[in-house]
Amino acid sequence: MSKKSTKIIAAAGVVAGLGVAALPAMTFATQSVNGSADIYAQIDPAIAMSITGNNDDNSHVSNSYGAAKAKAPNTITALDTLTSTDLADYSNGTAAVTSSSWINLLPNTSAHGSDSNGFKSTITVYTNDTGYTLSISGSGSEGALGNMVNQTTGSSAYIEANGIVKAGSDGWGYAVDTAVTTDASGSTPNYEVDGGQIKDGTGPTSGGEVTTVYYGVSSNPDQETGLYKATVTYTATTDH
Amino acid sequence: MAKKIKLILAAFVAAVSFGIYQTLAINNASAEEADRHPILLQISPTKQKISITPGSSYVGSFIVHNAGTQRFSYSVSATPYSVTNQEYNPDYSTVARYSQMSDWITFDESTRTGTLEPGTMRDVAFTVNVPADVPAGTQYAALMAQTEDGNADNATIAVIHRVGMILAATVPGDTRETGEIIKNNVSTFYFNPPVTMSSLVKNTGNVEQTAKYTYKIYPLFSNEALYNNEEDPQKLDIYPETERFNSMTWEGAPTLGIFWMEQTVELGDQVPISKVGKLVLICPLWLIFIIFALLFAAIFWLVARARSRKNVGAEANSSDKKEEA
């Protein structure tokens, strides 16, 4: 056997030996212990509600302004520069004004809520339960709507919750999901006033379920000036 | 030179890509922000079923959560809870035989009212002080969380957000779990979808019972179910001395076909199970008109043909007789 061949065989032998020796180390290096753990997240049933009206300054100005204006509506106008006091009012916790609704009308006129004038409440319900009911109630008898009362101190003037909305007579009411566009005919109501269920919703909701409640209001020829106000409560509960 | 141009182009493409990504990210963030409500009042759970004993107290809790983007103040209260008709319209004001519990409920003063920052929640504790003379059966109340925030001072319509948890408390003793499955309807013919199965269940006992509804729908010539909720049947609570109407709508029913539809209604353990299965035909009205029109046309043609043959036969006979004559 030549010297060269001998050297080659020896080198191969050394390499092989080193490889065999490395095997346990490699095996050790590549060994691993595997395990698994189950991760759980418990989601409990819940129901949530949001109401949006057209008293929403956020559509035009910043959240801060809207909140500050809600805090002091008669002292801050759209052209005012927000001061540090205004911002402090916001940081003191006044929620931005988004829920209530507002309409302006003259005596002897009517106003019907619509998507364009926004005189409505948009109620969004979220639930992961199998169904829900949405109800409306007011300050009237058996949960019916109450009269809109003039907020001027000492005034007893009101707009009656009778569901008859037509120019020339005072009245107001609500309509669910479909806007009313014409005045009442005679004394036949064109709006609802009763409290009770307005939506039998299915669940679980997907991205929330929206119910739109339009309001209508009308005034008599010598309706007293002032800000008339009524409060409506929307209640959501499961129905399973 | 060419290399420099390539480098510049590569840098330009990278910059544009990054810019597009950032724009998309900002737009997506804006969209997400817009979807979040300023005031979103959440309560959990939606219903609690408990057991109470006369003369004792039960302490429980539920969670009020501010899921919106604005701080709001809240308050909690207890109202009566009952249902008024077969559709189970809720009544939160009438105190009746099974809705007296709201008068027994008090709240921990430290959590009865409060302010919640966005994303925070509060555990609200309540106590049911059960009178010693309360009758056996199930009592109901709604535990409400509400906020009046978000209303402008110049609002014409101010709104109150109110979400409620139903509390059903069973008093042991002389309880009755009786009832009746009054109706189990599967109609056999529809001109068009939707296709529904309905039922009416009555709880004549004095405790809440659970009704289970199982629906199966098969095509006429197949054993493979188009719909089968046997492994997860629909469950509804039936309150004492009430009737509850329920219907299931087959979403996505075709406009034409013959199907086997089956509804099984169970109420508690004491009431016999009601199972109804029927062949259901869905056929549009215009198709029925066409079928009848074709049928009439076929009958008319057959009759006309028969008469025509009869006339031909009669003419043949008369010409034969003439020839003989």
Report on the architecture of this protein.
The complex is a heterodimer of chains A (240) and B (325). Chain A folds into two domains: 54-100, no CATH class; 103-238. Chain A is built from three helices and ten strands. Chain A has helices spanning 3-30, 63-71, 84-91, and strands at residues 47-52, 110-112, 120-127, 131-137, 148-150, 158-159, 171-176, 196-202, 209-218, 228-238. In chain A, the strands form two sheets. In chain A, strands 1, 2, 3, 7 and 9 form a five-stranded antiparallel sheet that branches. Chain A starts with a helix and ends with a strand. Chain B has 325 residues and is α+β, with helices and mostly antiparallel strands. The radius of gyration of chain B is 34 Å and the shape is flat. Mean pLDDT of chain B is 87; it is low at 19-34. Chain B folds into two domains: 41-171, Immunoglobulins (Immunoglobulin-like), CATH 2.60.40.10; 179-282, Immunoglobulins (Immunoglobulin-like), CATH 2.60.40. In chain B, a hairpin with a 6-residue loop joins strand 19 and strand 20 (274-282). Chain B contains three helices and 20 strands. Chains A and B meet through strand 1, helix 2, strand 3, strand 4 and strand 8 of A and strand 1, strand 10, strand 11 and strand 17 of B. Strand 10 (228-238) of chain A pairs parallel with strand 11 of chain B, so a sheet runs across the interface.
Lay out the secondary structure.
The complex is a heterodimer of chains A (240) and B (325).
Chain A lengths: L2 H28 L16 E6 L10 H9 L12 H8 L18 E3 L7 E8 L3 E7 L10 E3 L7 E2 L11 E6 L19 E7 L6 E10 L9 E11 L2
Antiparallel strand pairs in A: 1-3, 2-9, 3-9, 4-8, 4-10, 5-6, 5-10, 7-9
Chain B lengths: L1 H34 L5 E4 L2 E5 L5 E10 L5 E9 L1 E2 L6 E2 L13 E3 L1 H4 E4 L4 E9 L7 E11 L9 E15 L7 E8 L2 E2 L4 E9 L5 E11 L7 E2 L5 E5 L3 E9 L6 E11 L6 E9 L2 H40 L1
Parallel strand pairs in B: 2-11, 13-20
Antiparallel strand pairs in B: 1-3, 3-9, 4-8, 4-10, 5-6, 7-9, 10-11, 12-14, 14-18, 15-16, 15-17, 15-19, 19-20
